[in-house]
Amino acid sequence: MNNLKEKYTGKKIDHMDILNIEDAAKKSIGKKSIIVTGVTGQDGSHMVDYLLANTDYEIFGCVRRLSVYNHKNISHINNKRFHLINFDLTDSHSIARIIEKIKPDYFINLAAQSFVGSSWDFAHQTWETNCTSTLHILEAIRLYHPTCRFYQAGSSEEFGDVAYNPQDELHPLRPRSPYGASKTASRQLVKVWRDSYNLYAVQGWLFNHEGTRRGEEFVTRKITKAVARIKNAINNEGPYNMLELGNLDAKRDWSDAEDFVEGIWLMLNQESPKEYVLSSNETHSIREFVELAFKEVGIYGSWEGVGIDEKYVDENSGRVLVAINSKFYRPAEVDLLWGDSTKA
Ligand code: GDP
């Protein structure tokens, strides 16, 4: 079992290898470098994979000190150009020091409290992590290394209560959640710092983007993991718990996270800083996603009941596959997101 795990994950990242800022600075002397935050998350880890494969920069990945590390998404990386730095995005001093000492060519900020659903429960933490930190990074770049190119992870959640379909770069920002508000404010900070100080600072309006590294609380992973679990139980004639979801009628525009990290790199390397929507230009409901995911493994269901009592029932066995649990409804919903990425 251990052998299998080793083979699968490649060389383990040794926690003792996590550098402090001074040691990281020594490794950056005379080298072109990129700082990426959020490297243990979906986008950050794909960004590091992309940059290692397509550039020759030293990559400094920022990680927060935790007693139990969650490095699953980067445990496959075994490359001398990749370094981990102990870093906390909510600490303005550490942001200033890291930029002053490493003087990176690019700073790609993909760290965030990224789950909309939790942002009502942790509104202040969401604001500090997603927005105040952006202000600190912009100020540190302006003061210590103004030629550094900066990318801030923006979101289609900034469009929120949408005014027209599909949404392009001119769509007004009308957030519906503390998460959306924090990303909207960050976008305004990026624009103001770009206009005021002539910085190369951009954000992209990235619509939902998914993959196997997506957190399991997000609806795509939640559904696909449950479908696999239920299919396995049916194959083995075992019991299973039904999948519980919230609003089935919300619509989203989903893409592949690996495509979008390339989009981010392209945004960072234009002649002048311009911002873009990245999207698939299609919108689909959660309900459609559920139907397609079950169909993919040969399970066919039908919807019965209405509202909170609605259920998705296996046509073969009559067993309930999906039910509604009101705890997964949000205090305010973004009903529909549908991107127009023509400009990109
Ligand atoms: P978001 O678009 O960044 O909020 O990504 P999510 O994957 O968290 O949610 C996408 C949509 O799925 C939202 O409109 C949610 O309200 C809806 N949804 C319905 N049921 C669930 C659920 O059980 N979990 C999550 N995360 N979202 C759900």
Features:
9 helices; binds guanosine-5'-diphosphate; 15 strands; alpha/beta; disordered N terminus; 344 residues; four-stranded mixed β-sheet; seven-stranded parallel β-sheet; globular
Bound heterogens, unique:
guanosine-5'-diphosphate
Q: What's the gyration radius in Å?
A: 21 Å
Q: Look at the helices and sheets and give the structural class.
A: alpha/beta
Strand % is 15-25%
Distance between the termini: 46 Å
The proportion of residues forming helix, as a percent range, comes to: 25-40%
Question: Using DSSP, what is the number of strands?
Answer: 15
Flag low-confidence runs. Answer: 1-10
Structure description:
The chain has 344 residues and is an alpha/beta fold. Helix content is 35%, strand content 17%. The protein contains 9 helices and 15 strands. It has helices spanning 2-9, 21-28, 42-54, 92-102, 123-144, 178-197, 219-235, 257-268, 286-296; strands at 33-37, 58-63, 82-86, 106-109, 149-155, 201-206, 209-210, 243-245, 251-252, 255-256, 277-278, 284-285, 301-304, 311-314, 320-324. The strands form 4 sheets. It has a 7-stranded parallel sheet, sandwiched between helices. Strands 8-15-14-13 form a 4-stranded mixed sheet, with helices on one face. Helix 3 packs across helix 8 (257-268), helix 4 (92-102) runs parallel beside helix 5 and helix 5 packs parallel to helix 6. The longest helix has 22 residues, at 123-144. The radius of gyration is 21 Å and the shape is globular. Residues 116-117, 208, 217-220, 222, 245-247, 250, 252, 286, 328, 330, 333 line the site of guanosine-5'-diphosphate.
